[in-house]
Recover the amino acids of this structure.
């Protein structure tokens, strides 16, 4: 009998070997994952095929995005209409695609970053999300800025907020965004181990602390699913520091956490969660930058598992 992971009514079973690639195709690694309204699964990769699409059973459907990205694809978001927003911190843009791979829009000046820490869009943006009430696009500009930028649905700049720092409303590394149906904007700020919550105009509301290097976030029903990266340099091999999934209610209370204290590629283990999503059945998909964190440092370099599925056991 397969082992079940989780607690408090959130129980999951690992799906061994989910996602069958055609011969010769590789991920390198998967910084992002999203599902559409039909539970098709989109994997953002750093390989030759930037977006790889599967059905929920893990059967390969198609690829797209070849030639449109750098090798630093970073964040993936699927909107209510099944369009996709993809952040690329290598070329400093956010691109919008249809679910079939048609490019619809690009925000940012490709290969021309704004001055580092200057506050203008963009310097290595990390993710994007759409506010359901008005279609505005919220973008975390997180590696060379400490800002959130807001654009209209057709790509016109509106306003920004945030600066580098540790105080409320400041950021060290805004890394991912979720928006609920009350227009609350949730931002994972990775290095200070927290989630900050704002209103639609960027006014600070509250903060959730003690979440180890939160990298990815998915709002599903009345909970937020968060993937935690592993430890920082010097303690990156310490057990119990990240490489796990936490599930929180919308008041910031932890209701479930799973992931072995020891990193790895086995059932119940993670190396470097970087993207997370939940399908209509409650199954959780976790995308990992396992090559960057571990595989690239092996001798010789080795591609490791970078996507896993956990089915919800109701």
């Amino acid at each position: 009998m397969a082992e079940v992971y989780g607690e408090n009514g959130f129980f999951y079973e690992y799906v061994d070997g989910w996602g069958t690639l055609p011969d010769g195709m590789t991920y390198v690694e998967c910084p992002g994952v999203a599902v559409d309204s039909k539970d098709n699964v989109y994997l953002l990769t750093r390989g030759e095929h930037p977006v790889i699409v599967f059905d929920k059973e893990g059967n390969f459907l198609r690829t797209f995005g070849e030639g449109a990205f750098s090798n630093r694809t970073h964040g993936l978001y699927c909107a209510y209409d099944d369009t996709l927003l993809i952040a690329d911190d290598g070329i400093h843009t956010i691109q919008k695609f249809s679910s079939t791979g048609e490019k619809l829009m690009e925000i940012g000046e490709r290969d021309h970053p704004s001055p580092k820490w200057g506050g203008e869009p963009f310097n290595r943006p990390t993710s994007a999300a759409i506010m359901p009430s008005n279609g505005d696009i919220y973008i975390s500009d997180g590696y060379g800025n400490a800002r959130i930028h807001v654009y209209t649905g057709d790509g016109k700049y509106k306003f920004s907020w945030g600066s580098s720092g540790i105080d409320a409303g400041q950021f060290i590394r805004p890394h991912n965004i979720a928006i609920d149906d009350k227009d609350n904007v949730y931002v994972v700020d990775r290095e200070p181990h927290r989630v900050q919550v704002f209103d639609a105009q960027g006014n600070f509301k509250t903060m959730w602390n003690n979440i180890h290097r939160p990298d990815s976030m998915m709002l599903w029903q009345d909970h937020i699913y968060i993937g935690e990266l592993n430890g920082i340099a010097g303690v990156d091999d310490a057990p119990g520091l990240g490489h796990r999934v936490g599930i929180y209610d919308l008041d910031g209370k932890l209701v479930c956490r799973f992931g072995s204290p020891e990193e790895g590629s086995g059932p119940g283990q993670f190396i470097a969660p970087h993207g997370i999503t939940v399908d209509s059945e409650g199954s959780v998909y976790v995308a990992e930058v396992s090559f960057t964190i571990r595989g690239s440092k092996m001798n010789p370099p080795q591609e490791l598992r970078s996507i896993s599925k956990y089915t919800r056991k109701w």
Q: What stands out?
A: The mean pLDDT is 97.
